[in-house]
Amino acid sequence: MPSVQIRSSPVTVTDLKQRVIACLNRLSDRDTLSLAAAELESIALNLSPETFSLFINCLQNTDSSAKSPVRKHCVSLLSVLSRSHGDSLAPHLSKMVTTILRRLRDPDSSVRAACTAASVDMTTSITGSPFSTLSGPLIETLIHDCDPNAQIGAAVCLAAAIDAAEEPDVEQLQKALPKIGKLLKSEGFKAKPELLGAIGSVIGAVGGRNSDKAVLDWLLPNVLEFLSSDDWHARKAAAEAMARVAMAEQELAPLYKKACVGIMESRRFDKVKLVRETMNRTLSLWKQLEGDDSTEISESSSSSKSASSGSSATSRQRSNTLKGKDKNIKAPISSKLNDVEEKRNHSTLGAKRVLFPAKPKPKPRDAQSSDEENLEARSSSSQRKNAEELSLIRNQISLIEKQQSNLFDLFQRLMESSQNGMQSLERRVRGLETNLSVISTDLIVTRTITQQNGGNHKRNACLQN
User: Cα 24 to chain center, whole Å?
Assistant: First the structure.
């Protein structure tokens, strides 16, 4: 009896391995694809814990030169395993993650989409292992892999896993955020839109728990810079990331409200409709935040990469000096105080002339009120100009949209007329074929009758002789 048991177990494992490999090979043929896929799913559903490792090894060892349906289905089977067996797969989660990492370089986007779905299924179904078992390798791949397809796949998988996780590893994500954010400035990292999506997911998971203002101080200007990118996918992803910041950072986001709203206001009329809609939703979220900002974000740093760091540092020092000396100075007078500071070596009378110019014996309050009135007039005129420009932009956008809809209608009519022409041509061809068949039949009948008549004439001639 013991010898029989020893023989039966290896035979069963071997048969299972051969069956799985045979099914994987049949995935390459279109005629047997559906049957092989159904059989593999049936095998995955009925696996025992002792055969998990064997089945995963077969999926992992599939050659990368195999056809796209084979590569895609090998990843999709990980989703089937996760949903059907759950925490029983916890000891094998690292091997499953390795299988996904091998497919992230795949040039076929459908294979990478299967990797994303598998990452979500493993996150939601296999909760017995820590979240870092899945997120850690994805973060390492995102940071160190130079292949563009791997960068896209790692960023999308990481974002999907974080969004699907009930309890992501906040401490791990908080430590990884500065490293991931530095990739925005890296020329070797090509998948910037997908990276912005991953950054938004990390901020959404970390926000409100151990948030760090120093991180947002350098991260937000880098994200805002992509609002003026040439790639509309990057502009849309940046707007979505800013929406994540507004929703997650309830305590720190109001510090940046004024600067961020000002920059997004200038970008709200994007030429791409999806970007416009996303930007307006994000802008409304930021406007709903309570409180004024005390942190300055220069718009030039988000729209131009060639700004001088020395001049920005000097301007910050000057503004900090003014704030420390007198916090109650109003905004219309603060610009003139800068001129006064540059002429400190002059007399008090010269300083007064700078502050209150150009009127015979003016009173300080009168000068201040006149300055305020002038500034208010200038601001109102600039607001009117901005309103006029915005209305022109809106009219141009509506005109472009109408032209696009007209072109689309024209294209539809052209397609319909083309289809009608093709149908009439097909009817004419079928009519010609029918006429040809009739003519050929008539010719055959005529030829047969002629031959029969010729034979009868010969018989009659012979009989007469």
Answer: 32
pLDDT-based confidence at residue 303 (cuts at 50, 70, 90): very low
Summarised one tens digit per residue, pLDDT across range 168-213 is: 988 899 899 989 999 999 988 999 999 999 999 999 888 766 566 7
Per-position DSSP letters for 290-320, written without gaps between them = -S---S---HHHHH-TT--HHHHHHHHHHHH
User: Could you give the CA distance from residue 89 to residue 51 in angstroms, rounded to a whole number?
Assistant: 11
Sequence-ordered alpha helix ranges (H) in 326-363: 331-342, 348-355
Q: Is 377 a member of any domain?
A: yes
CB neighbour list of residue 17: distance below 8 Å, 6 or more residues apart: 54, 58
CATH number of 36's domain = 1.25.10
Tokens for 199? 């950054």
| Of 365 and 15, the one with more pLDDT | 15
Nearest to 158 by CA among 198, 194, 125, 188: 198
**Cβ(332)–Cβ(372) under 8 Å?**
yes
CB atoms within 10 A of CB 389: 11
407-455 confidence digits (pLDDT tens): 877 887 888 788 888 888 888 888 888 888 888 888 888 888 887 776 6
Q: What is the C-alpha separation between 297 and 225, in angstroms, rounded?
A: 11
Structure letter (DSSP) for residue 359? S
Spatial distance between the Cα atoms of 228 and 204, rounded to a whole number of angstroms: 23
Quick one: which of 196, 198, 204 has its CA closest to 170? 204
Q: Tell me the residue range of the domain where 42 lies.
A: 13-168
Whole-structure pTM over 0.85, yes or no? no
**Rounded CA gap, 379 and 198, in Å?**
40
Chain segment 334-384, per-residue pLDDT in tens: 443 344 344 444 433 443 343 334 444 444 444 444 555 555 666 666 677
Domain closes at, from 395, 423, 452:
395
Among left, alpha and beta (phi > 0; psi -120 to 50; other), residue 210 is left
Decide which of 138, 168, 198 is a domain's last residue: 168
